[in-house]
Amino acid sequence: MIKKILLGLGLFILVLFIAMVITAKIFSSTNNPKAKKEEILKSNTQSSKKALIVFQPGVSNFTDKIAHQIAKGLNDGGYEVTIDYPSKDLSKNVDNYSVIVFGSPVYGGKPLSIVTDYSSSLTNLSSKKIVVYSTGAGKNMTSELDIMEQAIKNADVYKKVKFVTASKKESEKNAYDFGKELSEN
Ligand SMILES: Cc1cc2nc3c(=O)[nH]c(=O)nc-3n(C[C@H](O)[C@H](O)[C@H](O)COP(=O)(O)O)c2cc1C
Predict the structure, then answer these.
(1) How far is the CA of 33 from the centre of ligand 1 (A)?
(2) Is 25 exposed, middle or buried (CB count within 10 Å of its CB: 0-12, 13-18, 19+)?
């Protein structure tokens, strides 16, 4: 009996250790800076409203897809939208944007630090609509959004939203609607 309990405990610790190593590896590889992206969706209207979406992709492409769906919603709502990675070449001058969205996948309850390092380095965010989003598996676990919110200096976060991987198509539609809604109010 004791042997079985010890074996079970040993297995549990081993699985926990492997999960921690995998999380640490994913964390360090996804936190690597990517080359500057600067993708711009021009506005189809005469509007001069501009939005910036800064996100770091995860292991697959869900965080990227969400960024593009939010961008499409904003763009259909009249905004010119710039999408970029938080690379060291990304300008810290965000004066031209009235909406700024920061996005990150979540690993082990935390957002990628490359995103929060960039967002916390911006000092002039007051009077802008600031949004943080995360992508992940757990709908009700949102500690990463609080960390992303705390990284924003001298400004309130307008909305924090998590897009879940369990229903990707639905999340992508929600992301488009969210972008459209952001453009409207
Ligand atoms: C090692 C590991 C740890 C994860 N930890 C969390 C977590 O703490 N909370 C959560 O909601 N999702 C967690 N996930 C799910 C990822 O956040 C999800 O796969 C990711 O957002 C997908 O984005 P991507 O397609 O851009 O990689 C984890 C996934 C892996 C592989």
Answers:
(1) 19
(2) exposed
Q: What is the pLDDT of residue 180?
A: 97
Backbone angles phi, psi at 181, to 5 degrees: -65, -40
The confidence score (pLDDT) of residue 177 equals: 98
Does 109 contact ligand 1 (Cβ within 6 A)? Answer: yes
Which ligand 1 atom is the nearest neighbour of the CA of 22?
A: 1
Pairwise CA distance, residues 110 & 105, whole Å: 8
Centre of ligand 1 from the C-alpha of residue 130, in Å: 23
- Ligand 1 contacts CB of residue 60 (under 6 A): yes
- Given a contact cutoff of 8 angstroms between Cβ atoms, the answer to whether 117 and 84 are in contact is no
Calculate the alpha carbon distances from 25 to 9, 29, 86 in Å: 24, 6, 20
Can you give the residue ranges of every domain in the chain? 1-30, 39-184
Considering the entire predicted model, what is its pTM?
A: 0.91
pLDDT per 10-residue tile (average), the chain, 185 residues: 91 92 84 89 89 96 98 97 93 95 96 96 92 95 97 94 96 98 91
- The residues near 152 (Cβ < 8 Å, ≥ 6 apart) are 119, 120, 122, 125, 130, 132
39-184 has CATH 3.40.50.360 classification: yes
Pocket probe for ligand 1: among 60, 107, 142, the residue whose CB has the most ligand atoms within 8 Å is 107
